[in-house]
Design goal:
The protein is an alpha/beta fold. It is built from eleven helices and 13 strands. Helices cover 42% and strands 24% of the residues.
Length: 288
């Protein structure tokens, strides 16, 4: 049976790459200035316009993908004779994974023998994107569905996510830091460094004073934890701070050269919670 891999818009891979590889995408939605938008990789609203408005004080809200949406897309590909793999955004950050699981159960009841695997990557942004990208490369090379699913399950908790933010206020709104900590941190130019743990949650790890130092910590984490750097394409995603992304890439290539660096924006659904100036680094290590 032929296999189809479905991703979602929180993967933050470049839209052109997904289009070129004909990857079906489940799009999250966000509400912005009273209007609903699909997270469609900058088509409906450019990334720069989104972050510009957020910097001016606009507060977007996001919503999970509902069960019906998953039922429709799963049913479409089951009827076309595919075995389905859905590579999902972390269940610790959204209920979307649970909705996909429910939809999969419904379609299996409706179609005897329907082969649907829903994978909780415990990843976000280009962490999820790198998992999806590797799975797609495996599929291109002729890997069977079971081989792809096994690889993802065996490697997803080796995908390191390290990131820093420019403004603690957005993390405060999401309950990641207290209001007092956000106020004091902003006054003292304190920048948190966080990672995503094995449960797929955002966890503060350390704090440093100054943006440059926080970016250096990200590069240091890679140098300390990465395995087989010469073979790895690592990911950097950013909340409209391309100069900082390029600076981080320079630090990496100077100290621990990797095969390649993929740079893209943090999309609006994740960016609504992390804010402008978010800078995130993704790579494989022995563990998170």
């Amino acid at each position: 049976m032929k296999t189809i891999i479905i991703g979602d818009s929180c993967c933050d891979l470049p839209g052109d790459y997904l289009l070129e590889n004909q990857v079906p995408i489940v799009h999250y939605m966000y509400l912005f200035k009273g209007q609903e938008y699909f997270d469609d990789f900058g088509k409906s609203m450019s990334y720069r316009d989104f972050y510009h408005e957020v910097r001016l004080g606009e507060m977007p809200t996001t919503s999970q993908v509902n069960v019906h949406t998953f039922e429709e897309i799963f049913e479409k590909y089951i009827k076309e004779g595919y075995a389905v793999i859905y590579v999902s955004f972390s269940s610790a950050l959204s209920n979307t994974f649970a909705n996909a699981v429910m939809a999969g159960e419904t379609i299996r009841e409706k179609y005897a023998g329907a082969d649907i695997t829903v994978i909780d990557t415990k990843c976000a942004s280009l962490g999820e994107g790198l998992i999806l990208r590797h799975a797609l490369e495996m599929l291109k090379k002729g890997a069977k569905k079971e081989e792809i699913v096994t690889w993802i399950e065996e490697n997803k908790l080796k995908l390191n996510h390290w990131f820093t933010v420019e403004d603690l206020g957005h993390l405060k709104r999401g309950g990641r830091v207290s209001g007092t900590a956000a106020f004091v941190g902003t006054m003292l130019n304190i920048k948190p460094v966080l990672h995503v743990d094995n449960e797929g949650r955002l966890i503060p790890v350390t704090k440093v004073r100054g943006r440059k130092k926080s970016i250096k910590v990200l590069a240091d984490m890679l140098a300390e934890r990465i395995i087989n750097p010469q073979e790895q394409v690592v990911g950097i995603s950013h909340g409209d701070c391309p100069e900082d992304a390029l600076y981080l890439k320079e630090l990496i290539m100077e100290n621990c050269p990797v095969k390649d660096v993929l740079i893209n924006y943090v999309g609006p659904v994740i960016g609504a919670h992390s804010g402008p100036g978010t800078l995130a680094l993704f790579f494989f290590g022995r563990e998170r």
